[in-house]
Amino acid sequence: MDALEIEHLCGQFYSSGNNEQMRLASQRLEAFVNEPNCLAQCRVLLDRALTPYTQFFGASTLIKHFNSISSQPVIPFNERYELRTYILDYLFKHNSSLAQFVLAELVKLYARLTKNFWFDMNPTVNNETYPFQTFTDDLLKFQMDPPHFSIALQILIAILTEMSVPNDEETTARAFTKHRKICISFRDTKLIGIYLFACQYLRDVISNQKKALGLSIEFDDYPKAIHTVQLQPNYYVVVEKLLSLALTCLTYDFLGTGSSVQDVDISDEHLTLQVPISWHDHIIDRSFYQLYFSYYFLFSNTTLVPIAISCLVQLSSVRRSLLNTNERLIVLNLLTLGIRSILEQPGGLLADEKSLHEFCRLIARLKSNAQLHELVRIDNYQLFMERLFRFTIDHLLSVHHHRQYHLSPNTLHYILSFWSKIVAFLSHISKLSDSDESSTLHLLDIYVPQIVAYYIQSRLDALNTDDTLYTELFDNDQTILQQQLDMISIMSRLDYNKTCVLLCNCFDDIAQQYQQAANSETVERRFTFLIYVLGCVLGARGITLSSLSMSNDDQDLFDGELVVRVLQLMTYIQQKTSQESNLKPINTAITTTATDKIDSTPYSERLELAILFFFDQFRKQYVGDHGRSDKIYQVLFKHLGIADEEQLLCIFVKKLFTNLQYSVISDKLIERTVGCFSELTHGYQSVRKLVKLDPIQYFINNHTQELFPFLHPIFTSKRSHNSTITASSWSRLRTTFYTAIGRMLMHDFRYDDDDDDRAEAFMIPFTAQYAKLVQIFKEFPDFSLINPGQFAALNQFNPTLAPLDEVQSLVIGITRDLRGLCSSLLSKQAYNSFFDWLYPAYLPLFLKALYVFCDRLEVYNPLLKFFHELSANRQDRLVFDPTKASAYLLFRETSNLLYIFQTKTLIHVNTTVPETDATLYYKSKLKPITTCLKIIQTCLVGNYVNFGVFQLYSDPCFDNCLQVFIALLTSVKKTDLFSYPKLTNAYFSLIESLSIIKIDFLANLSIPLFGYVLETISEGFVSHEQTIQNSCCVYLDTFLSYVFRSVKKNTASTNLMANVREYEGLFRQILVNLMNGIIYAECKNIYTISKPLLGLILLNENKFFTEIKQQLLYGHTQAKQAILSTALDNLMTGIDRTLTETNKENFTQNVTQFRSDIQDSITTTNADLGATSVLSSSSVNSNVPVTITISNLIPSSSSSAAAPVEELMTL
Predict the structure, then answer these.
(1) Residue 577: what are its φ and ψ, rounded to 5°?
(2) 816 plus 830 within the same structural domain
(3) Helices (H), 641-793
(4) Family assignment (predicted)?
(5) Radius of gyration (C-alpha) of the chain in whole angstroms
(6) What is the pLDDT of residues 506-563, one digit of tens each?
(7) pLDDT single digits (tens) 1081-1126
(8) Which of 63-67, 585-589, 686-690, 896-900 is modeled with the greatest confidence?
(9) What is the DSSP secondary structure assignment for residue 323, as one 8-state letter?
(10) Is 750 exposed, middle or buried (0-12, 13-18, 19+ CB in 10 A)?
(11) Which member of 135, 771, 917, 1115 has the greatest number of CB atoms within 10 A?
């Protein structure tokens, strides 16, 4: 394939727009990637390319080529190094003519080469040098002008990103271990020098601009007015990349964990900058903080400001252990001085949304990393808080400014987070210091109540006309509203008296408007928002600010006033729903016992949802096990005659059942109703009171489809027209519902004749549905009369008594109902009673249903989940009468179900479901496979079946179950196995259980299957989930013990030894990975890891102190190598060549001592290295070339060549 043909194919692939042409071009280009001389041809493509698409293809092909770990050692060192030099020369020569996407890909290629071969040495040179680590020398030629300097900065940023974040190919255990070693090496040798280099030139920029503006070049104070300096485009790009370079240094993965702190929106509140001790002096250096704040005053309304503030966000997040108390106060003073200076001149923030967002993040970080007693000690604290309060009220909480400045909800979240956290701190202390005056210096009791009142009132007023605000607050499951109100509710408890008076007045005013308004759409919006506010305020009852707020009893009285008003509103809505003619005013309505008529619809869905939310918050604080207060019922009795908790619960339960009787109901309302009912049944005290209520007893005896349309199989056709969830999701709520009912049914169940009658009466509706299924499946063969191997030969079943879709709905409904009921049966008597009802009359019907509906995921997914619940030995409930074979019958039915799934469903899915449809692929294949793995695991660990009995009586059930496991294993790709957490956890849990119970089965698998399992074990060791790592340790420890025991007794099978020999290299690599994890990672489970580690060392003993030791020492300095070598030699001191438990315990002690010695030595060495790396350029030694080479990249302002810098940074 010549260059012109590739040029033509690239044009078709990237720009044709014709899908068929793109597909054919992709196939041809993929063939080119796999050609043996790909490396040389890519260089030819780059040299002769006529279009940027060809250049991009050449660069991306080289990246793919070097991503393959297996191909890297094949390429000679000289070719790799020459290619990196060629790429740099290419960038230098063509920088002005390259398209941006081509430039980015070439820079990425250069960074990838630098990282992949970081520890490679030149075989022709004897000294210990690493040519790929001297990348800064290569950048000297780029000092000629700003465009070239910009390329150099872009390369540095790409290298930093590449070193910090593992790429897509570094997900395996071996690749991630290498990444972590390179990441730590780069941190110790290069990072601080690059950061200081960027900051030095950023200072030069500020100094030059201050000179041009006639300002003092000192950093002690900030300008009195903000400026917008206009740089020439080329110079502006250089400054922007310098700031980005500094930010990339501060967001570096200092611990080498593989996680990126760039994802600030995910875990920003818990962000901590884990800088090493060598950074200490720079963190407390005031010039760095003044530098970044200066960019706001000199480059206002530019893209430089948000980057500079982002750097301040990172500096404010430095780990607390790095600084002592006085140093933390110094840093706080520097940050608050800069923030206060910006607040006095906020024009630059209000004109730029990104700058304002980063500024609010900075304020939120103040409280996340510092406590209130530290903030009150800063200089001019009162002035700082006054400025921040005024800025919050005038600009951030104002809905008008919210629209004018295009603020995102996240921006408001950060500023509210600051105020709420600083208030929440008061709940942990009585005063801020030993002085009595200190507790009054925080000024929170002055500012916070005003913020709360302004927030509530401004939103209520804006909801009259602002549709955008309503959509923002109530869309996406009300996430934004919930987050904001959670913070406002904490703040409201600071002066609860004022807050409740405001809320009651607002409620009374809106209630009057609601009754009088003919079109109540706008009023309903305001009412809905206010009830959510009431609910969140009520939910913050657990926060006690004893130093400022009123007593708990007084707060309960105010809570009672809020509850009274919501109960009156609920009654009013029920009257409106029932279309009663004599409506009473809301403020005088009383709670009634009447329920709405069946076939009615809710009068106001949004108010119904708000009321459910309010009572859910009330339940958390006042009902059952959560808390009790007599004061609140004094208020309820005074206004409504409700004297105790039982009466209030009765009203609430009736409301829930009323919602379930609606013939047309929305998704949100039914989900919220069922969720509230389920939460209400959690806790012994709650259930004890609920079972005494007449509505609950009535439902237990009458849970029929006629009374509750929600339970009807075809009720989904009567949902509201704007329903957004599927019928399967809708019916899933039935499981939750019957779980709650089961908890109450089993309460005080004494298992006498009366209780048996009560349970039998409860099952009558299910018996009626099953009787219908029995008649439908009567024509289908009885599975108990045929061998499981004959399942596949049965003909397709077509029922004559009912349509297939109706049978499907009936099966789904029964399956979900019984699964929910079974999950609440936690005693052996209750479970036995349920199983006796289920088997043998009805349980075989599920096998028939699975066979008939083997191609319908809506059926087989809930069926499998029901059997998972049925076979789970929760609280040892699966204890049967010793004269009965119930346990074996249960396992046999479960095994037959799994066998049908393997022979019918799995084959159907493998042949019909495409992997390209990710959602369908998961629901149809991976989800049921996950459930099957869970079923096998629960059967193995249930401890209610002796599996040896099946072999004794030639029953194939257990063998079939193991064969199902193999079939599942061979049908799942490793990429899928690690891409879906539920599947991953189910797989490793089963592997752990199988290794304990049936290790001979796993050890004697065929070579490909054994390799598959061992490779997944190797990948599992680098998982962030400690449970997965523990499962891998149990498997390896058990397997190696089995191998050594079998060899000792001369019982090792040929297949077992073949597996060990075939994957000898993989065992050795797992050993290296575990050792690297002990040396570099946090390694919380060192006790568990040490058990398989001893077996691996003994398995590779001949090479452990030679090849493996050299591999572990590779890449370290000579000082570290000496320490690590000694520690490795001492690791086996006093250890026998056996795997007895005593020997393992002794080895664990050696491993613990080994890790302690290594960590101490590495910490000491890194500290010395860090202290060396921050010296001036005149005293930097050869081990830290960054400061030397980069500082000469462009002449420094401190050197004799000051003129070129001033020329570079000129306007």
Answers:
(1) -65, -40
(2) yes
(3) 645-660, 667-680, 684-690, 694-701, 727-745, 753-762, 764-776
(4) Belongs to the exportin family.
(5) 35
(6) 999 998 888 887 557 888 889 999 999 999 999 888 776 654 556 777 888 899 999 9
(7) 777 788 888 899 999 988 887 776 677 777 777 766 677 778 888 8
(8) 896-900
(9) S
(10) exposed
(11) 135
Q: Which of 662, 682, 710 is the last residue of a domain?
A: 710
Using CA atoms, how far apart are residues 276 and 195, in angstroms rounded to an integer?
14
Task: Report the alpha-carbon distance of residue 133 to residue 257 in Å, rounded.
Answer: 22
My answer on whether 828 and 733 are in the same domain is yes
Q: What is the C-alpha separation between 326 and 307, in angstroms, rounded?
A: 28
Distance (Å) of CA 520 to CA 124, 506, 523, 524, 525: 85, 16, 5, 6, 9
Give me the number of domains the chain comprises.
3
User: How do residues 749-762 score in pLDDT, each as one tens digit?
Assistant: 666 666 677 788 88
Q: Answer for the pair 139, 155: CB distance below 8 angstroms, yes or no.
A: yes
CA distance 242 to 229: 17
d(CA 1081, CA 503) in angstroms, rounded, equals: 52
Q: What is the pLDDT of residue 595?
A: 43
In a domain, 612, yes or no: yes
> What's the sign of the alpha-carbon dihedral 844, 848, 849, 850?
positive
pLDDT class of 409 with cuts at 50, 70, 90? confident
Residues 1107 and 1145 in one domain: yes
* Alpha-carbon dihedral sign for residues 775, 778, 783, 789: negative
Q: Is the same domain home to 945 and 1046?
A: no
Alpha-carbon distance of 265 to 108, in angstroms, equals 25
Place of tokens 């989940």: 865
CA atoms within 13 A on the CB side of 900: 24
Range of the structural domain that residue 1094 is part of: 973-1164+1186-1210
Query: What is the pTM (predicted TM-score) of this model?
Result: 0.81
Least Cα distance to 248 among 234, 260, 238 occurs for: 260
d(CA 184, CA 718): 61
Are 855 and 908 a contacting pair, CB within 8 Å? yes
CA 479 to CA 33: how far, in whole Å?
A: 47
pLDDT digits (tens, 9 = 90+) for 439-452: 457 888 899 999 99
* Residue 294: both structure tokens together: 């200066």
Q: By three-state DSSP, how is residue 548 classified?
A: coil
- Amino acid identity of 830? A
Give the amino acid at 1125.
S
Torsion of CA 628, 631, 636, 638, to 10 degrees: 150
Task: Say whether both 751 and 701 belong to one domain.
Answer: no
- Looking at the fold, whether 851 and 813 belong to one and the same domain comes out as yes
Of the candidates 396, 206, 401, the one whose C-alpha atom is nearest the C-alpha of residue 290 is 206
How far is it, in rounded angstroms, from Cα 960 to Cα 895? 7
Angle at which helices 957-970 and 927-941 cross, to 10°: 140
At 270, give phi and psi (nearest 5°): -110, 15
Residue 628 lies in a domain: yes
**Helix axes 843-852 and 857-870, enclosed angle (nearest 10):** 150
CA distance 956 to 35: 51
Q: Which of 919, 939, 967 is the last residue in one of the domains?
A: 967
User: Looking at residue 301, what DSSP letter applies?
Assistant: T
Q: Is residue 1008 situated within a structural domain? A: yes
Q: Give the whole-angstrom CA distance, residue 1124 versus residue 1067.
A: 22
Position 695 scores a pLDDT of 86
| CB-neighbour burial class of residue 1133 (10 A; exposed 0-12, middle 13-18, buried 19+) | exposed
Give the confidence band of 1198 by pLDDT, cuts at 50, 70, 90: very low
One domain, residues 809 and 734: yes
Beta bridge partner(s), residue 273: 318
Contact (CB, 8 A) for 158 and 108: yes
Which residues fall within 8 angstroms of residue 101, CB to CB, at 6 or more apart? 52, 56
**34: helix, coil or strand?**
coil
Q: Which tokens hold the place of 327? A: 């140093």
Report yes or no on 1198 lying in a domain. yes
